[in-house]
Amino acid sequence: MPVRKLIFFSSLIILPVLYLAMYLVEVGTRHQPIAQTLKFEALLVLFVMMALEQVYGYRYAVSQRFVLARDITATAVNKYLTGAALAFLVLPLLLYLPQHFLGRKVFIASPGALGPFWLQVILILLIVSFFRYWMHRWQHSNEFLWKLHSYHHRITDLRALNTEVSNPLDFALRNILIFIVLGVVGFDPLAIILTVPATNISGQISHWGANIRAGRLLNTIFVTPEVHRWHHSAIIPDGHKYSVNYGVEFAFWDILFGTYHLPQENGVPLQPERLGHPSGIGDEPNYLKLLLAPFGLYPRAWDKPAPVPAE
Ligand SMILES: [Zn+2]
Ligand SMILES: [Zn+2]
Questions:
Q1: How far is the CA of 116 from the centre of ligand 1 (A)?
Q2: Domain ranges, residue 210
Q3: If you average pLDDT over residues 95-102, what whole number do you get?
């Protein structure tokens, strides 16, 4: 079989294969504290996805080289620091509440009180994805939250490496807060261990810059790259106010709340031709600006003077 045909056919099944492989790697390394701290499994997954982006080239790909340093910095900060910082700030308060009012560290006295194990797994998946869907929608409609979140929307192409390009506060509100809350509720720890990787992996894969087909079933359950590209479309689809496809891991909330958008032609999903900020603002390679400007802390004096045009 010619290589091009092989690449095309494998692009039809690579998505479920990657979901499963990533899930097994994540769950399999859960009990290794060193791997957990250094997030080896997350880095491995990132490198595999980046390599596959080269194999499955996307037709509207836009070079992201000029923001490479920003992408690496933002990813490192959000992978290694943001979660710890938020836990440091929020956990004392979250632990204080049940301790003070109920005399214990969790809200629910025993995990069994929340129902059978399988029900807890489903409950966690639904609670996490429901929270993230509405938080993400709010991050588009609230003026201050949009100031923070709009940096994520300045990227001009989906890539595995820009999944975590976000202001840390924006990232924490959407991607970390709910997991810290879950830990204090009192769910079965095993149910949390089995479900958290599933939601994280779906979020990570949504930014995969590879030209892969997910198929109708996966596109209605998960936020696949085909679904998430429309969320980043430079032109907001007709009939929608801020954006479409707000789900972080599951697409069915968008279907339920009327924000799902994945037009088809002859059964094949169409993709937006141009990704970027809906107001046409270009991408921002300066990480400090992404970090400080939404809070009004980035002085104009730090901006490099505009280059003098050549004679
Ligand atoms: Zn968004
Ligand atoms: Zn995104």
A1: 35
A2: 3-295
A3: 80
